[in-house]
Specification:
alpha/beta, globular, 12 helices, 45% helix
Protein backbone atom coordinates (compact mmCIF):
# COMPACT_ATOMS: atom_id res chain seq x y z
CA UNK A 1 0.00 0.00 0.00
CA UNK A 2 1.21 3.50 -0.82
CA UNK A 3 0.51 6.24 1.72
CA UNK A 4 0.09 9.97 1.19
CA UNK A 5 -1.02 12.75 3.51
CA UNK A 6 -4.01 15.02 2.97
CA UNK A 7 -2.80 18.32 4.37
CA UNK A 8 -5.37 20.75 5.73
CA UNK A 9 -4.40 24.21 7.01
CA UNK A 10 -7.02 24.61 9.73
CA UNK A 11 -6.91 27.90 11.59
CA UNK A 12 -8.62 28.44 14.92
CA UNK A 13 -7.50 32.05 15.31
CA UNK A 14 -5.42 31.30 18.41
CA UNK A 15 -2.12 31.62 16.51
CA UNK A 16 -1.09 33.56 13.39
CA UNK A 17 -1.82 31.86 10.07
CA UNK A 18 1.93 31.87 9.45
CA UNK A 19 2.29 29.48 12.40
CA UNK A 20 -0.14 27.08 10.73
CA UNK A 21 2.04 27.13 7.62
CA UNK A 22 5.24 26.68 9.65
CA UNK A 23 3.78 23.61 11.38
CA UNK A 24 2.81 22.17 8.01
CA UNK A 25 6.39 22.62 6.80
CA UNK A 26 7.58 20.69 9.88
CA UNK A 27 5.39 17.84 8.68
CA UNK A 28 6.84 18.14 5.19
CA UNK A 29 10.34 17.71 6.62
CA UNK A 30 9.29 14.53 8.45
CA UNK A 31 7.57 13.19 5.35
CA UNK A 32 10.59 13.81 3.16
CA UNK A 33 12.62 11.51 5.43
CA UNK A 34 9.97 8.77 5.71
CA UNK A 35 8.03 6.32 3.55
CA UNK A 36 5.28 8.82 2.63
CA UNK A 37 4.67 8.96 -1.12
CA UNK A 38 3.02 12.36 -1.48
CA UNK A 39 1.64 15.37 0.34
CA UNK A 40 -1.81 16.23 -1.05
CA UNK A 41 -2.84 19.87 -0.59
CA UNK A 42 -6.49 20.71 0.14
CA UNK A 43 -7.80 23.87 -1.56
CA UNK A 44 -10.46 25.85 0.28
CA UNK A 45 -11.68 29.44 0.20
CA UNK A 46 -13.34 31.81 2.68
CA UNK A 47 -13.22 29.37 5.62
CA UNK A 48 -11.03 28.69 8.64
CA UNK A 49 -11.41 24.97 7.93
CA UNK A 50 -8.30 25.16 5.72
CA UNK A 51 -6.57 28.40 4.78
CA UNK A 52 -4.99 27.32 1.50
CA UNK A 53 -6.60 29.20 -1.41
CA UNK A 54 -3.71 28.44 -3.81
CA UNK A 55 -2.44 24.86 -3.94
CA UNK A 56 -0.05 25.69 -6.80
CA UNK A 57 1.63 28.42 -4.74
CA UNK A 58 1.81 26.19 -1.67
CA UNK A 59 3.07 23.32 -3.82
CA UNK A 60 5.87 25.47 -5.21
CA UNK A 61 6.89 26.41 -1.66
CA UNK A 62 7.06 22.71 -0.76
CA UNK A 63 8.92 21.83 -3.97
CA UNK A 64 11.72 24.18 -2.96
CA UNK A 65 12.08 22.40 0.39
CA UNK A 66 12.06 18.79 -0.85
CA UNK A 67 13.67 16.52 -3.40
CA UNK A 68 11.80 13.20 -3.10
CA UNK A 69 8.27 13.80 -1.84
CA UNK A 70 5.57 14.04 -4.50
CA UNK A 71 3.21 17.02 -4.37
CA UNK A 72 -0.47 16.48 -5.05
CA UNK A 73 -3.50 18.73 -5.34
CA UNK A 74 -6.56 17.42 -3.53
CA UNK A 75 -8.03 19.19 -5.18
CA UNK A 76 -7.88 22.17 -7.54
CA UNK A 77 -11.47 23.43 -7.61
CA UNK A 78 -11.57 23.71 -11.38
CA UNK A 79 -14.74 25.75 -11.75
CA UNK A 80 -13.03 28.72 -10.08
CA UNK A 81 -10.09 28.84 -12.51
CA UNK A 82 -9.48 30.03 -16.02
CA UNK A 83 -8.40 26.68 -17.55
CA UNK A 84 -5.44 28.03 -19.52
CA UNK A 85 -4.02 29.75 -16.46
CA UNK A 86 -4.52 26.57 -14.43
CA UNK A 87 -2.64 24.55 -17.05
CA UNK A 88 0.25 27.04 -16.96
CA UNK A 89 0.51 27.12 -13.16
CA UNK A 90 0.36 23.35 -12.80
CA UNK A 91 3.04 22.96 -15.47
CA UNK A 92 5.27 25.43 -13.64
CA UNK A 93 4.84 23.45 -10.41
CA UNK A 94 5.74 20.24 -12.24
CA UNK A 95 8.88 21.92 -13.62
CA UNK A 96 9.88 23.44 -10.27
CA UNK A 97 9.51 20.02 -8.59
CA UNK A 98 11.36 18.13 -11.35
CA UNK A 99 8.31 16.08 -12.18
CA UNK A 100 6.75 15.40 -8.78
CA UNK A 101 3.23 16.74 -9.37
CA UNK A 102 0.07 14.67 -9.00
CA UNK A 103 -2.90 16.66 -10.29
CA UNK A 104 -6.18 15.98 -8.53
CA UNK A 105 -9.18 18.13 -9.46
CA UNK A 106 -12.77 18.42 -8.32
CA UNK A 107 -16.00 20.33 -8.38
CA UNK A 108 -16.33 21.62 -4.83
CA UNK A 109 -19.62 21.98 -3.02
CA UNK A 110 -19.48 25.04 -0.77
CA UNK A 111 -22.30 27.51 -1.60
CA UNK A 112 -20.23 30.40 -0.24
CA UNK A 113 -17.47 29.64 -2.72
CA UNK A 114 -20.00 29.27 -5.54
CA UNK A 115 -21.57 32.62 -4.76
CA UNK A 116 -18.34 34.59 -4.42
CA UNK A 117 -16.81 33.05 -7.56
CA UNK A 118 -20.09 33.61 -9.45
CA UNK A 119 -20.68 29.88 -10.02
CA UNK A 120 -23.96 28.03 -9.59
CA UNK A 121 -24.50 24.50 -8.35
CA UNK A 122 -26.10 23.69 -11.69
CA UNK A 123 -23.05 24.58 -13.78
CA UNK A 124 -20.24 23.72 -11.34
CA UNK A 125 -19.86 20.13 -12.53
CA UNK A 126 -19.82 21.01 -16.22
CA UNK A 127 -17.24 23.76 -15.61
CA UNK A 128 -15.10 21.39 -13.56
CA UNK A 129 -15.08 18.73 -16.28
CA UNK A 130 -14.55 21.14 -19.19
CA UNK A 131 -11.61 22.72 -17.38
CA UNK A 132 -10.13 19.25 -16.72
CA UNK A 133 -10.42 18.46 -20.43
CA UNK A 134 -8.79 21.73 -21.50
CA UNK A 135 -5.81 21.33 -19.14
CA UNK A 136 -5.14 17.86 -20.54
CA UNK A 137 -5.43 19.09 -24.14
CA UNK A 138 -2.93 21.84 -23.33
CA UNK A 139 -0.51 19.26 -21.93
CA UNK A 140 -0.96 16.67 -24.67
CA UNK A 141 -0.64 18.95 -27.70
CA UNK A 142 1.89 21.56 -28.76
CA UNK A 143 -1.05 23.66 -29.96
CA UNK A 144 -4.72 22.91 -29.55
CA UNK A 145 -8.23 24.17 -30.21
CA UNK A 146 -11.28 23.78 -28.02
CA UNK A 147 -14.93 24.61 -28.61
CA UNK A 148 -17.00 23.90 -25.54
CA UNK A 149 -19.90 25.14 -23.46
CA UNK A 150 -17.92 27.75 -21.52
CA UNK A 151 -14.63 28.19 -23.41
CA UNK A 152 -13.71 28.61 -27.06
CA UNK A 153 -10.10 28.64 -28.30
CA UNK A 154 -8.22 28.19 -31.57
CA UNK A 155 -4.56 27.27 -32.04
CA UNK A 156 -3.45 27.91 -28.45
CA UNK A 157 0.15 27.40 -27.28
CA UNK A 158 0.42 26.85 -23.49
CA UNK A 159 3.87 27.16 -21.91
CA UNK A 160 5.77 25.84 -20.12
CA UNK A 161 5.34 22.17 -20.97
CA UNK A 162 5.04 19.84 -17.96
CA UNK A 163 8.25 18.18 -16.78
CA UNK A 164 6.63 14.73 -16.76
CA UNK A 165 6.12 13.04 -20.10
CA UNK A 166 3.47 13.14 -21.37
CA UNK A 167 2.04 14.94 -18.32
CA UNK A 168 1.49 14.59 -14.54
CA UNK A 169 -0.83 11.82 -13.28
CA UNK A 170 -4.47 12.99 -13.38
CA UNK A 171 -7.08 12.21 -10.72
CA UNK A 172 -10.72 13.26 -10.46
CA UNK A 173 -12.36 13.58 -7.06
CA UNK A 174 -15.52 11.47 -7.08
CA UNK A 175 -17.76 11.41 -4.02
CA UNK A 176 -21.21 10.50 -5.30
CA UNK A 177 -22.12 7.35 -7.23
CA UNK A 178 -23.16 9.57 -10.14
CA UNK A 179 -19.74 11.26 -10.32
CA UNK A 180 -18.04 7.87 -10.10
CA UNK A 181 -20.12 6.59 -13.01
CA UNK A 182 -19.23 9.62 -15.13
CA UNK A 183 -15.50 9.45 -14.34
CA UNK A 184 -15.30 5.70 -14.76
CA UNK A 185 -17.12 5.75 -18.08
CA UNK A 186 -14.32 7.95 -19.47
CA UNK A 187 -11.51 5.94 -17.90
CA UNK A 188 -10.38 8.53 -15.35
CA UNK A 189 -8.49 7.59 -12.20
CA UNK A 190 -10.49 8.73 -9.18
CA UNK A 191 -9.84 9.64 -5.56
CA UNK A 192 -12.44 8.83 -2.90
CA UNK A 193 -13.60 11.17 -0.17
CA UNK A 194 -12.95 11.37 3.60
CA UNK A 195 -16.57 11.72 4.67
CA UNK A 196 -17.92 8.27 3.76
CA UNK A 197 -17.94 5.17 5.94
CA UNK A 198 -15.69 2.27 5.05
CA UNK A 199 -18.75 0.39 3.81
CA UNK A 200 -19.71 3.28 1.54
CA UNK A 201 -16.14 3.48 0.24
CA UNK A 202 -16.19 -0.23 -0.53
CA UNK A 203 -19.43 0.19 -2.51
CA UNK A 204 -17.96 3.13 -4.45
CA UNK A 205 -14.74 1.26 -5.20
CA UNK A 206 -16.72 -1.70 -6.54
CA UNK A 207 -18.98 0.58 -8.57
CA UNK A 208 -15.92 2.21 -10.14
CA UNK A 209 -14.51 -1.19 -11.07
CA UNK A 210 -17.82 -2.22 -12.67
CA UNK A 211 -18.21 1.00 -14.67
CA UNK A 212 -14.61 0.95 -15.86
CA UNK A 213 -14.89 -2.61 -17.12
CA UNK A 214 -18.31 -2.02 -18.70
CA UNK A 215 -16.78 0.80 -20.77
CA UNK A 216 -13.70 -1.09 -21.88
CA UNK A 217 -11.23 0.38 -19.39
CA UNK A 218 -8.85 -1.43 -17.05
CA UNK A 219 -8.34 -0.43 -13.45
CA UNK A 220 -5.19 -2.52 -13.32
CA UNK A 221 -2.64 -1.41 -10.75
CA UNK A 222 -3.39 2.33 -10.94
CA UNK A 223 -3.22 4.14 -7.59
CA UNK A 224 -6.71 4.93 -6.24
CA UNK A 225 -6.27 7.31 -3.29
CA UNK A 226 -8.83 6.88 -0.50
CA UNK A 227 -8.93 9.47 2.28
CA UNK A 228 -9.33 8.17 5.82
CA UNK A 229 -9.35 10.18 9.03
CA UNK A 230 -7.11 8.60 11.67
CA UNK A 231 -6.78 9.12 15.44
CA UNK A 232 -3.97 7.43 17.38
CA UNK A 233 -3.15 7.29 21.09
CA UNK A 234 -1.83 4.98 23.81
CA UNK A 235 -5.35 3.68 24.46
CA UNK A 236 -8.47 3.29 22.34
CA UNK A 237 -10.47 5.61 24.56
CA UNK A 238 -7.86 8.36 24.32
CA UNK A 239 -7.88 7.96 20.54
CA UNK A 240 -11.68 8.26 20.53
CA UNK A 241 -11.45 11.55 22.39
CA UNK A 242 -8.98 12.85 19.80
CA UNK A 243 -11.35 11.76 17.05
CA UNK A 244 -14.32 13.35 18.77
CA UNK A 245 -12.56 16.69 19.24
CA UNK A 246 -11.38 16.76 15.62
CA UNK A 247 -14.80 15.74 14.30
CA UNK A 248 -16.48 18.55 16.21
CA UNK A 249 -14.24 21.00 14.35
CA UNK A 250 -14.89 19.31 10.99
CA UNK A 251 -18.67 19.26 11.43
CA UNK A 252 -18.81 22.79 12.81
CA UNK A 253 -16.48 24.39 10.29
CA UNK A 254 -17.24 22.61 7.07
CA UNK A 255 -19.42 19.49 6.94
CA UNK A 256 -22.78 20.86 8.04
CA UNK A 257 -26.20 21.67 6.53
CA UNK A 258 -25.17 25.25 5.74
CA UNK A 259 -22.58 23.88 3.31
CA UNK A 260 -24.89 21.55 1.41
CA UNK A 261 -26.75 24.30 -0.39
CA UNK A 262 -29.88 22.20 -0.21
CA UNK A 263 -28.55 19.61 -2.66
CA UNK A 264 -29.80 16.14 -1.63
CA UNK A 265 -27.23 13.42 -1.01
CA UNK A 266 -27.44 10.37 -3.25
CA UNK A 267 -28.06 7.44 -0.92
CA UNK A 268 -25.96 4.31 -1.34
CA UNK A 269 -27.91 1.04 -1.42
CA UNK A 270 -27.39 -0.89 1.78
CA UNK A 271 -25.81 2.13 3.46
CA UNK A 272 -28.74 4.50 3.94
CA UNK A 273 -27.91 6.98 6.66
CA UNK A 274 -29.79 7.33 9.93
CA UNK A 275 -30.12 11.10 10.25
CA UNK A 276 -30.93 10.79 13.95
CA UNK A 277 -27.30 9.83 14.62
CA UNK A 278 -25.16 12.70 15.90
CA UNK A 279 -22.83 13.66 13.01
CA UNK A 280 -19.81 13.92 15.32
CA UNK A 281 -20.37 10.43 16.71
CA UNK A 282 -20.85 9.17 13.16
CA UNK A 283 -17.33 10.29 12.31
CA UNK A 284 -15.93 8.69 15.47
CA UNK A 285 -17.78 5.39 15.13
CA UNK A 286 -18.21 4.87 11.39
CA UNK A 287 -15.65 6.90 9.44
CA UNK A 288 -12.42 7.50 11.36
CA UNK A 289 -9.87 4.75 11.94
CA UNK A 290 -9.34 5.03 15.68
CA UNK A 291 -7.17 3.22 18.21
CA UNK A 292 -3.68 2.26 19.27
CA UNK A 293 -0.94 1.82 16.69
CA UNK A 294 -1.44 -1.96 16.65
CA UNK A 295 -5.20 -1.58 16.22
CA UNK A 296 -4.81 0.93 13.39
CA UNK A 297 -2.28 -1.28 11.59
CA UNK A 298 -4.70 -4.22 11.78
CA UNK A 299 -7.58 -2.09 10.53
CA UNK A 300 -5.66 -0.84 7.50
CA UNK A 301 -4.51 -4.33 6.60
CA UNK A 302 -8.18 -5.34 6.73
CA UNK A 303 -9.25 -2.41 4.53
CA UNK A 304 -6.42 -3.13 2.11
CA UNK A 305 -8.00 -6.52 1.49
CA UNK A 306 -11.71 -5.75 1.83
CA UNK A 307 -12.20 -2.51 -0.13
CA UNK A 308 -9.55 -3.13 -1.67
CA UNK A 309 -7.32 -0.17 -0.81
CA UNK A 310 -3.96 0.27 -2.51
CA UNK A 311 -3.40 3.95 -1.66
CA UNK A 312 -4.21 5.50 1.70
CA UNK A 313 -4.49 9.28 1.84
CA UNK A 314 -4.05 9.90 5.55
CA UNK A 315 -5.98 12.70 7.27
CA UNK A 316 -4.55 12.77 10.83
CA UNK A 317 -6.93 14.08 13.48
CA UNK A 318 -4.13 15.58 15.61
CA UNK A 319 -0.45 16.43 15.32
CA UNK A 320 0.38 13.67 17.80
CA UNK A 321 -1.52 11.25 15.56
CA UNK A 322 0.61 12.30 12.59
CA UNK A 323 3.85 11.73 14.53
CA UNK A 324 2.69 8.37 15.90
CA UNK A 325 1.49 7.27 12.48
CA UNK A 326 4.80 8.22 10.84
CA UNK A 327 6.86 6.36 13.42
CA UNK A 328 4.65 3.42 14.45
CA UNK A 329 2.16 2.69 11.67
CA UNK A 330 3.62 3.77 8.33
CA UNK A 331 6.61 1.37 8.35
CA UNK A 332 4.23 -1.54 9.01
CA UNK A 333 1.76 -0.96 6.16
CA UNK A 334 3.81 0.25 3.19
Amino acid sequence: MKVGLLQFFSWTGRVPVSTVYDRAMDRVAMMEDSEFDCIWLAEHHFTTYSVCPSVTLMGTHIAARTKRLRIGTAVTLNAYYHPLRLAEELSMLDVFSNGRLNWGSGRGFDPTEYKLFNITQDDAYDRFRETADIVQKAWQNERFSHHGKYYDYDDVLVLPRPFQDPHPPVYLAASSPDSIRKAGAEGYTIMLDPHSTNGEIQFKRQLYQQVMEANGHEVGDRNLPIVRYVALADTTEEAREIARHSSQWTVGAYINPNKSGGRPREEIPGHERDHSVDPVERYVDEIAVVGTAAEVVDKFKQLESEIPMNYLMLAPMSQDTFVRFTKEVLPRIV
